[in-house]
Amino acid sequence: MVDDDADAVAASLQAWLADVSFTDRDADQVTELLTEAVLAWGTAQEWRVYRRARSVVKLPPPYEDRHSWVDVGVARSGLPPIVVEIDQSERRRTLEKLAAEAAEGRVAVWLRWGTGPFAVPALPVRLATCQVSSRKDASGRRLFSAPVAVRPAPSHSGAAVGEADQGDLFAG
User: Fold this and answer.
1) Cα separation of 42 and 13, whole Å?
2) Is-contact 99 108, C-beta < 8 A?
3) Per-residue pLDDT reduced to its tens digit, 69-106
């Protein structure tokens, strides 16, 4: 039952993200847009949502008396809480944090965004993704857009390949 709930949560968030669109945003802006999308998703389910919720994971020394944070925490009446971490890169610490959250009974979702492909984390961590395209602007700054534009296949010259003579590439 817990696995079914976690799968349903990840699928619901993934479906919600299908409507996310933006053009030419930098990495910080994309992360903020996705955070807002997750908060809106939780609010639409009539759950309580929290930006930067306290994690069960403590920080390493010398800060072991302090806790880490998750990007979004979601409280659900009568159901396990949800934690969502939002990352462009594949960070081992994020995966460890989400595994610790899941071990405490929370539904742990890793929202990865980028050009992909995205490695599927080991259970009990669930994956949601936001595929983006990227380009550099004139100043060299990387910008991201979603949804990814589908480009048509290139047109060919129309020459009949069977009749073309390539010649010997290795002739001396």
Assistant:
1) 9
2) yes
3) 999 999 999 999 999 999 998 889 899 999 999 999 99
